[in-house]
Amino acid sequence: MKLKSLKLLLATLTLGLATAFPVANAAGSSVELKDAQVDLDNKLSMARGAKYYANYCMGCHSLKFSRYNRVATDLGLDDESIKSIIFTRDEDDVMSKSGSLMISAIPSKDAANWFGTAPPDLSLVARSRKSGDWIYSYLTSFYKDDSRPFGVNNLVFENVGMPHVLQELQGMQELEVHDDGHGHVTKTLKLAEPGKMSVGEFDQLAKDLTNFLVYVGEPAQLHRTYYGILTLLFLFVFFIVAYLLKKEFWKDIH
Ligand code: HEC
């Protein structure tokens, strides 16, 4: 009897937790993510993303599972382009080569002091955050907030420790809060000071970076469809051979 009630208690708890968590999550992130329209067939976009990444992100964030030359081959970058994105140095202060891992130059201990948190390696961020939509929304959701150490906050990552590193390109957004008086609050962002890029250009940049980071999360994605089709073709040919063999073996038996 005791065991039975224990089981019942466990079941109730599990059910309770399972239903409570989605609700808690939904309540925590009142912001809807924007559709990043991730397109892994668009190599030009991913290649642009790789260049932006090297220029604006590698200073702080490593991609410790990626090598420059693998990225170059996958995305169709030529030798000149790949050289132009190598800025980092390894621990012996030797300039990284095209076969080097994409490790950021920043020592993580110093970084933790500067930003409060060390900038995480972004190899798997597209997977840990479940989608490219999160990255795209994050990159486009910085806004002015003078109460924060870097003067910015972020709609999808509250009190983030990262500065708005793309401010020069995007400009600065301001938060507008609308309350309909019935407890329904919507938060939107408005571009207050334009940057060097137009809204459309910056949007494309955020999509390029997102495509690149989704690719980096699982480089094999680019080849998976190709191997899938190859496997199906093989199975088809094998089926014909097997069928002909079967006919040959059984032709005298009736
Ligand atoms: C000056 C250093 C710096 C630069 C440059 C920088 N970041 Fe960050 N980034 C950070 C720090 C620090 C965090 C951790 C923030 C926190 O946890 O509060 C972070 C967090 C992130 C996260 C969230 C990771 C997660 O899942 O928690 C993403 C995504 C990200 N950065 C993307 C980028 C991209 C893309 C670029 C280039 C456009 C970039 N960052 C440039 C410092 C930097």
From TrEMBL:
Give the subcellular location. Membrane
User: Which residues bind heme c per the record?
Assistant: 57, 60-61
Q: Which Gene3D superfamilies match?
A: Cytochrome c-like domain (1.10.760.10)
Main subcellular location: membrane
Q: Name one GO molecular function term.
A: metal ion binding
- Domain of life, per lineage: Bacteria
Essential cofactor(s): heme c
Q: Which residues cross the membrane?
A: 226-245
Q: How is the cofactor bound?
A: Binds 1 heme c group covalently per subunit.
PANTHER family hit by this protein: CYTOCHROME C1 (PTHR10266), CYTOCHROME C1, HEME PROTEIN, MITOCHONDRIAL (PTHR10266:SF3)
Q: What is this protein called?
A: Cytochrome c1
Species of origin reads Leucothrix arctica
